[in-house]
Amino acid sequence: MSIFFSKKIFLDEEELAENLRKARQEKKLKLEEVAKKLNINIKYLKALEKGAYNDLPEGIYGKNFLREYSIILGLNYNELLKQYNKERNLNKEKKINIFSNQVVKKWYFVSIPKIIKNLSIIIVVILCFFYLNYALKKIYSIPELNIISPQENFITNDNQVIISGQTEPEVKILINNEQVLIDSQGNFNKTISLNKGINEITITAEKKFGKINIIKRHIMVK
């Protein structure tokens, strides 16, 4: 039966992994041999000798592996544990710093185009809102109706008069309840027969979903 004696080691000059590796090599032990004796997966012993602490299990398991390994190598576990904790904490800090730097770089290179993209979307949404509002007003507002001739209270000797005016292209025009054709610019003309005396002419402009605009003209025939 082999008896192992613990000896104090100084870890300020060398890393824990280097001390473990040197101690094993001095005893002329192979990792496979140690792993078999300790019944520890060889990958965990390799992680200890490489300082790859992130490859070790979290919590107490990693420390237990270190304790068993220190016993078989004849090293002072308490000193090893101090260095283990110190180096593992340093690795965590480095990992956090690296992650933080990556986040900053990612934000710098990615967020600016993202901001531009978001601003573009907002601008498009605002423009669509204004266009929709304009379109709804055009649909549901009172249609424009401008009677060019004749003027109100027009006096004539003729028994006919031409009603001319202008409106919006999509508007329906009725003169005395008869529909009048309009051109692409919204212009319309209609010859109306008159009777002697006062004639009342009603011009109506209406949209499909909108309100109605009515203008009346009173014409006197002598």
The tally of structural domains comes to 2
Query: What is the count of helical runs?
Result: 5
| Class inferred from helices and paired strands | alpha+beta
Give the N-terminus to C-terminus distance in angstroms: 143 Å
Rounded Rg:
48 Å
State the major sheet.
5 strands, mixed
* CATH H-level superfamily title of the largest domain: lambda repressor-like DNA-binding domains
Q: Can you tell me the CATH architecture of the largest domain?
A: Orthogonal Bundle
How does the overall form come out from the CA principal axes?
rod-shaped
Fraction in helix: 40-55%
Widest β-sheet, arrangement of strands? 2-8-7-4-5
Q: Could you list the spans in which at least 5 consecutive residues all have pLDDT below 50? A: 1-13, 96-100
Query: Strand content of the residues, in percent?
Result: 15-25%
What does this structure look like?
The protein is an alpha+beta fold. The protein has 2 domains: 1-111, Orthogonal Bundle (434 Repressor (Amino-terminal Domain)); 145-221, Immunoglobulins (Immunoglobulin-like), CATH 2.60.40.10. It is built from 5 helices and 8 strands. It has helices at residues 16-26, 31-38, 42-50, 60-73, 77-140; strands at 145-149, 154-156, 160-167, 172-175, 178-180, 187-193, 197-206, 212-221. A 5-stranded mixed beta sheet has the order 2-8-7-4-5, with no helix packed on it. Strands 1-3-6 form a 3-stranded antiparallel beta sheet, with no helix packed on it. Helix 4 (60-73) runs antiparallel to helix 5 (77-140). It is rod-shaped, with a radius of gyration of 48 Å. The N and C termini lie far apart (143 Å). The model is unreliable at 1-13 and 96-100 (pLDDT under 50).
